[in-house]
Structure formats: C-alpha cells, structure tokens
Amino acid sequence: MPNNAESNVIAPLLNIMEKLRDPQTGCPWDKQQDFASIVPFTLEEAYEVADAIEQADFTALPDELGDLLFQVVFYCQLGKEQGMFDFADVVTRICNKLTRRHPHVFGEKVTEANALHTATSVKQTWDEIKQSERQQKQQLSLLDDIPQVLPALNRAIKIQKRVAKVGFDWPELGPVVAKVHEEIDEVLAEAQFLQAEPEIYQPKVLDEMGDLLFAVANMARHLGVDPEQALRQANQKFETRFKGVEQLAQQSGVAMQDHTLAELDQYWDQVKKQQRQ
Fold first, then answer.
1. Per its UniProt record, what Pfam families does this chain match (predicted)?
2. Would you say 45 and 64 are in contact if contact means Cβ atoms under 8 Å apart?
3. Residue 212: Cβ within 10 Å count
4. pLDDT tens, position by position, 228-243
5. Among 1, 90, 79, 69, residue whose Cα is nearest residue 35
6. Secondary structure letter of residue 172 according to DSSP
7. Residues of 75-88 as b/e, b for ≥16 C-beta within 10 angstroms?
C-alpha cells in the first residue's frame, strides 16, 4: 500500500472526483456517465500517453498521465457508488498481484542470487504464475481473458503470443513469410470477381483481408516489431510527406485536384529526397 505522503497526494483527486459526481452539486456531464460511457475516453487518453512518449514530448507527458489517472479514478468512484470497489481496493489488488508475480523480488527468501535472474527467466516465471491464476479462475481457454475491445492489431499479437507459449507457432521466419504470400494470393483470387459481383465477393474479400492482416501481424511479431506502433509511425510518415506534397502543389499555382497522378508522384519523390538529406 502507498505511504501516507503518497496517500495525501492522491486524496485531492479522489475528493475532486467525488464532488464531480455529487448528486446535488456535481457536474451534469460527469453525473450522467457510467462504466461503458467513459471507455472511449479511457482509450483516447491511453493513446495520448503513447503519442507523447513516441514524440518524446516529456513536457506534456505528466499532463497526459494525469488525464489517464483521472480515468482510473472515475471508474473507482463509480465502483464506490455501487458498493463494488474503491480506489484503495484497486491499489491493494495491483500491489498483491505485483508481489505475487515477482517472487524473485518479494519472496520470503530473497538473496543475492536474484542477480542471476534474466529478463527471460523472470518473464517465464510471470507467465507460469499467470497460467496458474487462469486455472484457479477455471478459464476454459488460454484466450479467454484477452479483451475483445483491444485494437485489432494488438489483440492479434496477444493471441499469437499466447498460443505460441504452448507450441502453436512456427519456430522460424520462413513459413511465416510464406503464409503472408499465401494470404495475398487468396485475397487477389477473390478480388478478381469483386467488381462483377460485389454482394457475393465483398464478404469474401473482407474475410481474406482479415487473414492477411493477421498473417502480417504474425510476421511483425516474429521480427520483434509492434505492428500497432509500426503502423502509427507509417501513418505519421505518410501524413508528413503528403503535407509536403500539398505545399509543393500550392507553390505551383495549380489546384491539387488538377494535377496528374504522375505530377503528384514527382512531388512525393521530391519530398522523400528532402527528408533523407
């Protein structure tokens, strides 16, 4: 549990949250919210934390972390109002979980031998303890506790990592890459009929595209790449370059839509060259 000084730090935020939800004097918007309604805000705040870190904007990071912490406090207030749990319960649960899953740090016989632990061995112990906890909860599948609301790429990676732990995985990169090519071929096989019979083939293309994206996520995992982060970086790179194309088009005096694709491609190549210098 946190010490008194830390408890005093969080107390004002808990009090603010309680006042915002006060039935008589609270904020009308905050009073209308429930667990489900604030989930989108929680996800947005988590992404803003990630964005601040990726942009190395550490001046903004405390603000973004505060916004995310407020989401946690909001859920705790809702839980308290409904007699289910409060902030102290949440802190106690995470403290217990962390100490339970780090026996090499918090175990009864902690010695200098702990220095021999590696990140890999510690991760293995963590996974074994989590598996034991799943069995105690009587989960029927390894995949039962992977949240459905995760971004699809993140969830794909979690699924793939989970099944890999029980040996359901290719041991090398070759078959993973071959699977990507196989899925591309299957997408194209369905796509050739898409224009003629869209009602029949659009669902098939959707299905095959899903398989392709899942295979690409698996390839990223085998290469040690977070596909969600990679795609965010690709989005940012494209956005930056396209803005450069827009600037060049504006400087030409010709409206963007009046350029040919070849001309826009030339602008794109020019922007890429400038960025590499």
1. MazG
2. yes
3. 19
4. 889 988 999 999 999 9
5. 79
6. S
7. bbbbbbeeeeebbe
Torsion over CA: 59, 63, 65, 66 (sign): positive
SS3 of 114-146? HHHCCHHHHHHHHHHHHHHHHHHCCCCCCCCCC
Rounded to an integer, what is the distance from CA 96 to the centroid of its chain? 25
Cα distance between residue 234 and residue 221, in whole Å: 17
Q: Are 66 and 9 in contact (CB under 8 A)?
A: no
Q: Distance between CA atoms of 164 and 179, rounded to whole angstroms?
A: 16
Q: How confident is the model at residue 138 (pLDDT cuts 50, 70, 90)?
A: low
**Residue 113 predicted with pLDDT over 60:** no
**CA distance linking residue 132 with residue 196, whole number of Å:** 53
Q: Are 254 and 261 in contact (CB under 8 A)?
A: no
| Alpha-carbon torsion, ordered 41, 42, 48, 53, to 10 deg | 180
Cβ contacts of residue 27 below 8 Å, gap of 6+? 20, 21
The rounded mean pLDDT for the chain is 88
CB 267 within 8 A of CB 249: yes
Buried b (16+ CB within 10 A) or exposed e, 19-57: ebbeeeeeeeeeeebeeeebeeebeebeebbeebeeeee
Alpha-carbon gap, residue 18 to 80, rounded angstroms: 10
Side-chain half-sphere of 70: how many Cα atoms within 13 Å? 15
- Cut 0.85: pTM above it: no
The tens digit of pLDDT for each residue in 166-178 reads 899 999 999 999 9
Any idea what the Cα angle at residue 123 is, between residues 220 and 233, rounded to 5°? 30
Residue 270 has φ and ψ, to the nearest 5°, of: -65, -45
